[in-house]
Amino acid sequence: MAGTDGMPDQPITGSVTKRSMREALNLALAEALAADPSVILIGEDLADPGGGISQVTKGLSTRFGTDRVRDTPISEAAIVGAAMGAAVAGMRPVAEVMIMDFISIALDQLVNHAAKARFMSGGLLNVPLTVRTAVFGGIGSGATHSQTLEAWLAHVPGLKVVVPSTPADAKGLLTTCIFDDDPCVFVENVALYGTSGPVPDGPFRLPLGQADCKRPGTDVTIVTYGRTVRDALAAAEVLAGEQVDVEVVDLRTLVPFDSVAVLESVARTRRVVIAHHATRFAGFGAEVAAQINEELFGELEAPVHRVGAAFAPIGSAPSLEAAVMPSPATIAAAVRSVMGP
Amino acid sequence: MSGTGGPAVGTDAGEGPESAARRRMYQLMSLILTCDERVRRGLSAGEFATTYWPATGQEAIAAALGTVLRTDDQLVTTYRGLHDQLAKGVPLGPLVAEILTRRSGVNAGKGGSMHISHPPSGLVLSTGIVGSGLPIATGVALAAQQSGSDQVTAASFGDGATGTGSFHEAVNLAALWRLPVVFVCQNNRFAEMTSTAEAQPVAHVVDRAAAYGIVGEQVDGNDPDAVYGALDEAVARARSGAGPTLLECLTYRLWGHYFGDPMRYMPREELDQARADEPVGRYRARLIVDGVLDEEEAAAIDDATRSQVEQAFVEALAAELPDGHEAFVDVYGTAGA
Known about the structure:
The complex is a heterodimer of chains A (341) and B (337). With 341 residues, chain A is an alpha/beta fold.
């Protein structure tokens, strides 16, 4: 049975409620705050009545207090740095960097300190830090408010990088990140907040490092994650009408990377397209392509094909965004090209 | 002072540190100077090779930190951190072994001299990026405030850090939330190779406190009693919930930015004067004049620190480097990539 918006159901046991991704994230945060007094939220505009720029934290400061759901000045280095410090001191902070482009300001804390503290201390320090951030691409926000930058973070040993595509995955993965003892960057997407699907009502965690097959198929694999999963599924629907049976593998976490699931699928279909909204050049898809090439060279029917944003800043005009960003149409075209004449 | 395992010393009301505190501070200063000199001697002689940022000249500030702070109070320091680390109680042997990147080091040889961390002594971590420790210390203080503990966190940093955005963001946030943190600027007059005067538009680091509505105080950072007094007040203020203090301790970096720095940018007469005024000998002489120590006791302290330091180097030099496979241990706490 397909869920709403054409998204397939998760294999979930127990009661579920149809919720938006915004509601699923809010539920995960509320359950974590309720379960563990060491969980705190810090970031810009989180508290009510605003409840976050995308209302993901709506109601939480009213329910849990403004000492646990803390509004901050516009200070990304201090938000992530203070969350890092609180984490090594025993809290489980969830920091919010409102829009992913702003993570550039906090990269020192993430890359030089949070990612390496456990290693550099010889295991004396624990960094149970979660940084939530959201990609705002696709709504005309222009070049400094539209970037999809997870490849920067996946490149740094010590960080975990999680990019959910469905409300259920969002709840299960965010909960896991909050209770994980390593620094996790959790990448949301403004285009997904309003999408809905079945979400487990009770405590629900999904393991990191497990990709999920969002649509089984036999002819070609699309490896993708986050927002682009929906576009891949839309492309797969179109291609089904052309007698091409597409499998869609959702990575869900870039680090840890589930190479086993990717290689298993591609070994079966022997054709693969990798798709993401991040810039194609030196994007995460390049790593996926290289691993497929290293393991399955000679078994492929066609060269690995990648779809991603063009190598250009993202202009504000809808026409400029459309010229750079991938779409179901560009993904379908890539699949047709690997299927051959 | 209350607390868990902190030093059993304190102040006589209004009289500055009492004799036990002053003896302890001299012991710490002697230990720091001896250890820093030993590292530099070994590097000069080619006995070992490592990267190192000398702390000589800044002993008094560390001695006060290590005497005013309780063991369960927290300290975040920097790559120029030997003095702070020893004063806060990081054990000498494993600290020296870490500087020499040995497996027996306090951080298993993975941190090196720049990145010392020892939570049991309250030395949270040492950062290698200028300014970055202030937001982290702010977060450590946030955790204390949030959990209802009366722990105080000190952030130790140089004058160079005050030019970073991290300084502003952290002090601003800590002031806003009235966090139990003391920002201790060890103004050693140089940020890498640039003098403080060339790098800041205000006359003094402490002038910046006004921008955050917090108490700022400037003291002679080469006078342990003066640092002790100002720090004691700042820590009490933080512990009582009255928020952060910016404490500027004026000192002088006597051996350059990094070991081997030719120091061409340091005015010769100024450096000679600073070396003549170095704090350890000055404090030793004062304690003898004040009758806190006699020459024999002071010499006994110096002898004891020399033999402790020498023993630490003998052991560290005999220890092994970490195995290559340890490069892959503790990258993640739970199953990683």
